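Table 4 source record.
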Amino acid sequence: MSDHHMISIAVNSSPFRDEMSVLFCGEGEPRGGHIIGPAVHDYYLIHIVLEGGGVFETLGERHRLKAGDCFIIFPEVLARYEADKQQPWTYMWVAFSGGASADMLSRIGITPDAGVVRGCELAEMKDLFRKLRGSLEKPEGGSAGLRSVEASGWLRIMLHKLGQLAITSDAGAPLDKRDSNVEAGELHSRAFPGLQQAISMLSYQYGQHTSVSEIAKALGYHRAHLTKLFKETTGLSPMQYLNKVRMKKAESLLMNGLTVAQTAASVGFNDPLFFSKQFRKWSGVAPTEFKKTKEVNAE
């Protein structure tokens, strides 16, 4: 059974590397009790609750959220969130990165220990989200740079609205380096339309339970056709590419002190044992051995 009744994603195929830039956005209707984490991300992730409720946990604090509430996950900060079993939330989300992001969020009162904002005007936020998503979904014939600039503009307005609430209220009180792109900015889409977008989806969604079928549907390809074109262009199937992204990120997380279970959840594996088998295939050693070797070398 799928974890979601509905999930829909739009990806920025050409985000800026240093400026604050939207990576992807989406809408979801998870099933009751659906859990993500405890896990870390290497980008900022805003969720705005539209209906229902759930729980967000980070930095030892637990927040029960309802419609109109928003929670922001920070890069490399362990977080967990769970849909209510009886009235699960539906939400929309925006992921972004960029060197100026941390300072900008701090200046508007949003920090890792104050990452919950309550009382959003949902009609207004939905409108901003639709405009942001619309900028990412404009025809490929236009400038990818312009689409990215427009999306960033709508994000800034969205953050302005959240900042107004954060600064004037204490309701949100207690509750980097992106190495996952693995050549994402180095491959070109001339081989077939949508290649860069497929790569972006795999590179940014490595922590989600992404399937080739979902990516193919989003891009308007048949699953088998997308796999064939992707392999002809990159030398890897989409799932092989996704596994490469996940394993490289897992190496980084293990070296930075995360447990095997936390690392598994962060790179899209529900089962730490299955993750360990996949990691051994990738690196030749178990995750625990990898951690010990790196710790010894660091000394």
